[in-house]
Design a protein that fits this description.
The complex is a heterotrimer of chains A (297), B (270) and C (321). With 297 residues, chain A is mainly alpha-helical. Chain A contains ten helices and no strands. In chain A, helix 8 packs parallel to helix 9 and helix 8 runs antiparallel to helix 10. Chain A is elongated and about 75 Å long. Chain A starts with a helix and ends in an 8-residue tail after the last helix. By secondary structure, chain B is of the alpha/beta class. In chain B, the strands form two sheets. Chain B has a six-stranded mixed β-sheet, sandwiched between helices. In chain B, strands 2-1-4-5 form a four-stranded antiparallel β-sheet, covered by helices on one side. The longest helix of chain B has 21 residues. Chain B is globular. The termini of chain B are far apart. In chain C, helix 5 crosses helix 8 and helix 7 packs across helix 8. Chain C is globular and about 80 Å long. Helices cover 75% and strands 0% of the residues of chain C. The two termini of chain C are 17 Å apart. The chains are: A mainly alpha (297), B alpha/beta (270), C mainly alpha (321). At the A-B interface, helix 2 of A face loops of B.
């Protein structure tokens, strides 16, 4: 569940050198990855955006017959409470993206700050922070999320807080490694010797050098956050109704999978489309950010 | 009859670029040829093409014929892996540039050295251990016992390269390829390793293909020199001819560079 | 090696203590008083007072922590708010399901991922190499519980070859029945886990395939298979082993979720129920046990890595550095 660790091993080669003309075919394949990812993820984003403007039915409209098959009235049929599946699915897209983006924002900002602090800190503080991060990371994100949901109650905010906090430890550890690596380079030492202030070292040298790797990692984290939200919701620990969530929709449809298969398949398909899309974007970004790493996975 | 006969060799990258173009040369038994050029001139790729070990994606065309006693004449380009396995080690073996990564980091030096000896001489047990110690002594390693038990990261760069030479020689090849074997070493160690390599090759009557970027080094150990630039041979001849009367501008700059260094050294020695 | 073991064990102990502090603070500080959660669950004032007294949240924080730590050291995990049964034995009885589920899934995932990842790297240029990479890309995007649902639909509801869920009442008294009920859950977790493992194995294999030392031994006459066998597998294992620890911990987590799909009476079901009921001693006990397991797994993974890679061992053979 943590391909994130892998990225930490990649080298932060920020300035993108022009690829020689001979490698042009390989290069266009990378952008194909990026385009495919954008198309898949864009599909889900479009559905979520549409749900803000228009929905086939009201989210809590239970007027339809129960477990209707797809038809003219309900394009994808209804669930066991008589709600329109398409409506639920569209709201689910919105919730998935909200939780994903919210936790990436939270985890990203917290992790970046903590990582910068640890990266610049004196040895003693750095060791303490790293040890703490190692422990937090040893803790599977979902377990941490469940813990936080347990002490708060299940809500949209809890889900974001829970997943974001778990993520921040991973982002912090990556940031710390990247910062250390940049600080060890000669041009930074040269710049420090010539009297550049710390804040300027951060904005001029550190951030420009670490953001490509960080961005790739955050994209991967977005996919993981969407998966984590689905798992939480499946366990009944996610955002409660009227927020429709794909994870809960799947859980509710599990008992009637033979009689009403659409409800047990459609949310899963959308979930996979979104996560694959986001992962492809991450892969595409990695290839753009660091052309020396040609491991397409 | 020549030991190695390269005709019209071309190495092409995955992207379709020619990295080595229309290269031809021969090496007879016991001869020593130097391949000289700057990095990216295709000299190391030539060595790999001769062994049939180009990185995946790169393709060789043209002809590379190895004719060593015991293996018979064989075309390397396009040969099946099984045929190549018989040639590598027996007809030709190699010492690479970077001795740290060229050895298996997870295996004790002695066991790594034992591998080619066992394959070539079919020794086992105590006889094999004795052969390993002898091979280490032959490359003038002071404490063969300790080095044999050490992992590559535990010995010095010079010792590692001596081990790599011992492994290549243990195969008793007809042709030894040395791909910049001293570039990664300290200057003082360089001279020792070069002298050692030259002496061992002479003692065994092997042919040598020596690859380097430094004319002074290459001319010191070889009889003939081939100058490579951007994947093409620009000049070839005996060391004397090349040093005394370089024709191509690139060769002239190489010679001038070496002279310059020489006179600077003379001046400081005075 | 002994010094290393001692230092690593000390680190394990310190990590565990730190983890306990984090756990404790998260549970006590985030919501204020855990008893409040009970209140929202509709408990009577007496129940809340009893709960407050039991977890000691009416006393100062350091004292609470000391008591709590004391209990943990003596392996007393307290009693459930809801059932009033001791948590420790309950967890032990649940582990009978969760541990075999985790280990079997993990072993199956490794058994699948190692050959598949190797082939995906070795045959990267071919259509099936690309297909395997594509499948692993799909695998990491699929939530485990959905895979479980789909497998149940096909193999339990349609084909009726495996039970849809549950576990024999008498646990492992009938091993065949127990294994049959674990079959689909194990396959579910293993499928999802192997997808991410394949990617690690593939990239480790690619590194080895491009390594200088493999080229050296082939240049000296080793066949590809021989060189790979003697000088490739161990080298590829180094990075893979370093993430196996995290993967095993993740497998355990996967088990927690997948147990819900198959209604298995394991730790996962207990945890989910505990969270839904705000049953703090239960949550705390499970988190304590799983944290310890995760740290122990990390310890084992570090040790395994040192055994494989001499560079991590320092100067055992007395080299110059």
């Amino acid at each position: 569940m943590r391909p994130a660790m892998r990225v930490a091993a990649s080298s932060p080669k920020a300035p993108v050198p022009e690829a020689p003309a001979a490698d042009a075919p390989a290069r266009s394949r990378w952008s194909a990855t990026l385009v495919a990812g954008c198309v898949l993820a864009g599909l889900v984003v479009a559905v979520a955006a549409l749900s803000l403007l228009w929905l086939p039915y009201a989210p809590d409209d239970t007027s339809g017959d129960r477990l209707m098959p797809p038809g003219a009235e309900h394009l994808l049929g209804t669930d066991k409470l008589g709600r329109d599946l398409l409506t639920q699915l569209m709201i689910g897209a919105r919730i998935a993206l909200t939780v994903g983006a919210g936790s990436v924002l939270l985890g990203g900002v917290l992790g970046l700050l903590a990582g910068l602090a640890a990266g610049f800190a004196t040895r003693w503080l750095d060791d303490t922070v790293s040890a703490l991060l190692d422990i937090l990371i040893a803790f599977p994100t979902l377990l941490l999320a469940m813990l936080i949901v347990a002490v708060r109650s299940a809500s949209l905010g809890s889900a974001i807080l829970a997943i974001g906090l778990g993520m921040s430890a991973i982002v912090a550890r990556l940031t710390r490694v990247l910062v250390k690596r940049v600080l060890a380079q000669d041009f930074v030492t040269a710049s420090r010797t010539s009297g550049t202030s710390w804040p300027r070292v951060v904005t001029e040298h550190v951030l420009p050098n670490i953001w490509p790797t960080l961005l790739v990692n955050l994209a991967l984290q977005l996919g993981l956050a969407v998966l984590a939200e689905a798992s939480l919701s499946y366990l009944g620990l996610g955002p409660p109704p009227p927020n429709a969530s794909w994870g809960r929709m799947l859980q509710e449809a599990q008992a009637t999978v033979l009689t009403a298969p659409v409800g047990a398949v459609a949310p899963g398909v959308l979930l996979v489309v979104l996560v694959i899309g986001v992962n492809l974007i991450a892969d595409g970004l990695r290839d753009v950010a660091d052309p020396t790493r040609r491991r397409t996975r | 009859m020549s030991l190695l006969d390269v005709t019209g060799l071309r190495v092409r990258s995955a992207g379709g670029r020619d990295l080595v173009r229309d290269l031809s040369f021969t090496i007879g038994p016991g001869e020593r040829l130097g391949l000289i050029g700057e990095s990216g001139s295709g000299k190391s790729l030539t060595a790999l093409a001769v062994m049939g070990l180009l990185p995946s994606g790169m393709t060789a065309s043209g002809s590379v014929v190895l004719d060593a006693p015991g293996t018979g004449p064989s075309e390397v380009v396009g040969a099946p892996e099984r045929r190549l396995n018989g040639l590598r080690g027996r007809a030709v073996s190699v010492v690479f540039q970077e001795p740290l990564t060229a050895l298996d980091p997870l295996m004790r030096v002695g066991r790594q050295l034992a591998e080619p000896i066992r394959r070539r001489r079919r020794l086992r047990g105590a006889a094999l251990r004795a052969a390993v110690a002898a091979a280490l002594q032959e490359v003038r390693i002071a404490e063969p016992g300790r080095v044999a038990r050490a992992y590559p990261h535990e010995i010095s760069g010079g010792q590692r390269q001596r081990v790599a030479i011992a492994m290549a020689l243990a195969c008793e090849p007809a042709l030894l390829i040395a791909d910049e074997p001293t570039t990664a070493l300290d200057v003082t160690v360089q001279a020792e390793v070069l002298a050692l390599l030259g002496g061992l090759v002479t003692a065994r009557g092997m042919a040598l293909l020596f690859i380097g970027h430094d004319l002074a080094v290459v001319s010191g150990i070889t009889d003939r020199v081939l100058v490579l630039k951007d994947g093409e041979a620009v000049e070839s001849g005996t060391v004397r001819e090349i040093v005394d009367a370089p024709r191509h501008p690139y060769t002239r700059s190489l010679v001038a560079g070496a002279r310059h260094l020489d006179s600077a050294l003379d001046w400081t020695n005075r | 090696m002994t010094t290393y073991l001692l230092r690593r064990a000390a680190f394990l102990l310190v990590s565990f203590l730190l983890a306990c502090v984090v756990l404790f603070l998260l549970l006590r500080l985030l919501p204020g008083d855990p008893a409040n959660a009970l209140l929202s669950a509709g408990a009577t004032p007496e129940q809340i007072e009893a709960a407050r007294h039991q977890i000691g949240s009416d006393r100062p924080l350091p004292e609470q922590f000391a008591t709590w730590l004391g209990q943990i050291v003596t392996l007393d995990l307290g009693e459930s708010f809801i059932s009033t049964l001791p948590v420790g034995p309950e967890i032990a009885s649940r582990l009978v399901v969760t541990v075999p589920l985790t280990l079997l899934s993990f072993l199956l995932a490794v058994a699948v991922a190692v050959p598949v990842g190797f082939v995906a790297a070795h045959r990267a240029g071919t259509w099936y190499g690309s297909l395997l990479s594509g499948l692993s890309q799909l695998g990491i995007a699929v939530p485990a519980f959905w895979v479980g649902m789909l497998l149940v639909t096909v193999f339990a509801l349609k084909l009726r070859v495996f039970p849809a869920g549950g576990f024999p009442r008498d646990d492992w008294a009938d091993p065949v029945a127990a294994l049959t009920s674990l079959a689909l859950p194990v396959v579910t977790i293993a499928l999802v886990m192997s997808a991410s493992l394949i990617r690690y194995v593939r990239s480790a294999t690619l590194d080895v395939l491009g390594s200088d030392h493999l080229r050296t031994f082939r240049a000296l006459g080793s066949s590809f298979t021989g060189a790979m066998w003697r000088h490739g597998l161990r080298n590829a294992a180094v990075p893979v082993v370093s993430i196996l620890g995290i993967e095993l911990a993740t497998t355990f987590l996967g088990a927690v979720v997948v147990e819900s799909v198959f209604a298995l009476p394991g730790l996962g079901g207990m945890l989910v129920k505990g969270i839904a009921q705000h049953d703090y001693p239960v949550i705390q006990g499970i988190l304590f046990v799983s944290t310890f397991a995760v740290l122990l797994i990390g310890f084992a993974a570090d040790l395994a890595q040192r055994l494989i890679d001499p560079r991590l061992r320092g100067t055992v053979s007395g080299g110059p550095r």
